[in-house]
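BUG: 3D viewer hangs when loading the predicted structure for this chain

Environment: internal workstation, default settings.
Expected: structure renders.
Actual: progress bar stalls at 90%.

Input used:
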Amino acid sequence: MTIKRLLKSLLNVNKIKINNCEFNTLTQELYIYASLTKGQRNRCPICHRKCKGYDTITPERKWRSLDFGPVKVFIVLEVHRVVCKEHGILSEDVPFAYHRSNFTKEFERQVAYFALHLTKADVCEIMRINWRTVGDILKREKDRIEPDSSVRCKNLRAIGIDETSYKKGHKYLTVIVNHDNNEVIWCHKGHGKEVLEKFFSSLDKEDLKSIKLVSADGARWIKDVCNSYLDDYDFCIDRYHVTEWCIETLEELRKEVWRNIKDNEVKRSVGRPKKGEEVTKAKYFQKPSKYALGKNPENLTDYQKETLILIEREHPKLYRGYLLKESLRNVFDSDDPDKALKDWIFWASHSKLEPFKELSKKIRRHKEAILATCKYKLSNARIEATNNKIKVLIRKAYGFRNIENLISLIMISCSNLINEIRLPYKDRLIIT
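Structure tokens produced before the viewer hung:
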């Protein structure tokens, strides 16, 4: 095997002719000088059609390839500009690299794979590139595998809508997930009516008609937008968020009881209590009581169970709030959720507990959505898990300055596209 053929095999490139190579011992860089074959010249980099040449003299360009051990490798070519009838004046197509990229395809695939599995610092150190370069590579890889993301919005049945923060200063992303396959189908910077309307306005009439279930956290703006675009659908409020409302109400009641205890507490002198002196301060009313009241009964520790017994004996109003919380949680497991929810609303509105009276009004407003959740057993757990995965991606990258690169990473990681990003050696060409 000749040296030139060996280099083509190592670089995994075709449709080029290697002319010469040069090794810089000072910088430890290998430059491989090549030229395009006759059939590959004057092709548009987008449509790959033969075009007329625009100029004949251009400076040499170089593309970074995968390293040969500790040595950086560059492919150097003279690339001319062509005139495409459809896309205008562009640099001619290079078979081993994407348009407007300074790296070979294999190099970009390896960087994309590392970016999905390693941290920012590791990717930058292993590949010896800047993190902003990694973001651009991820976007190109996503566009290569899936040029049009609207295909994910076809034949939708059940979707989940939520927003998550990606940066300090109230910077949010609106994320929409398909419940049937657990894929992110749409992601956009910002949140609110205007952003969500962009998603629904991008769908055609058939796609809108196919959506029958929508799950969210009960935000009014989400339901208003859904009502304006969808006709025959059911809006579901996740069980987790309804229970969270009740836990927040119970915490408000607990703080009120705690303030009453503090006001009526007998002040004592500084120092250790004397022998036989009673300590009236209710220590169980700090964090232990919060955890005991908020956790599910089956998850309580022995100490938390004792705390609940103490609350039941000394603070019956607070314990009544705890029973209301558990009763609302059990509505979702009831055989007749409609009757169980009516009974809960009546009990809460007549409980003589002001926080729960206000909560009963809120539950009454969302009654249909809660009953739809009980009927279809639709949970927003998928999108909450997706939001957590997005947080992990952001932490691994130490944040993103370019929001488009972050969205590309999300669309790859939170879908089946992640299986398309493989290491280069798994799809090597056989150069003959």
